[in-house]
Amino acid sequence: MVTSRKTLSEDTRNFEKYRAMTYTIISFLLFIFLGAILHELGHFLIIVLSGSKINYVNIDFQNQSFNINYTTNSVLVDVINGYFGGLFSALAMTMAYLRYRKFFQLNSKAKTRGIGLAYFGVVGINLVQGIAEGAFRSIYLNNMVFTGACIVIGAVVGIQIFRALGPVKRRQ
Q1: Helices (H), the chain
Q2: CA-based R_g, the chain, Å
Q3: Distance (Å, rounded) from C-alpha 117 to C-alpha 137?
Q4: Dihedral angle of Cα 58, 61, 64, 69, to the nearest 10 degrees
Q5: How far apart are CA 34 and CA 32, in angstroms?
């Protein structure tokens, strides 16, 4: 059976769409992992820099949790620690984006736009989680509906930040 040129062109376009979606999904999962590591590193840094005593660090892969048990006499350290994880992660990822901005937006292909949207979705999630974890700590830790809403709102905020930054213009 002979296929027409139009059919081959359509097949190529469909393949490119699926490839872009695959790259976006894989990138999103990797960025979630990176964001989680940076988030917990932010908590760890503020505890170490404040001079608080770390009792133990619990990494539980089965329940997907990371917990640093520490002792401090300062209420301020507890408050800052709540905010710092998410804000540190969002700031570090934003600074990396600004450094490598052209990679995400210079090429207007769906693949690179999708990766940029996934990246900033995670940045937004970390930003909103940092604010929620600091301001509403007990609700954030105990109410999964609230935490889920923070994740969705964060992703939308991150995507809007990515769109607001706009495409990088090529110099000619």
Answers
A1: 5-49, 75-99, 101-105, 110-135, 137-142, 144-165
A2: 20
A3: 28
A4: 0
A5: 5
Closest C-alpha to 84, from 134, 147, 139: 134
CA 52 to chain centre: 28
Could you give the 3-state DSSP secondary structure of residue 20?
Answer: helix
Q: How many CB atoms lie within 10 A of CB 146?
A: 14
Sequential DSSP letters for 26-44: HHHHHHHHHHHHHHHHHHH
pLDDT per residue as tens digits for the range 28-69: 888 888 888 898 888 888 888 888 888 877 776 666 667 777
Tens digit of pLDDT for each residue in 9-32?
666 666 777 777 888 888 888 888
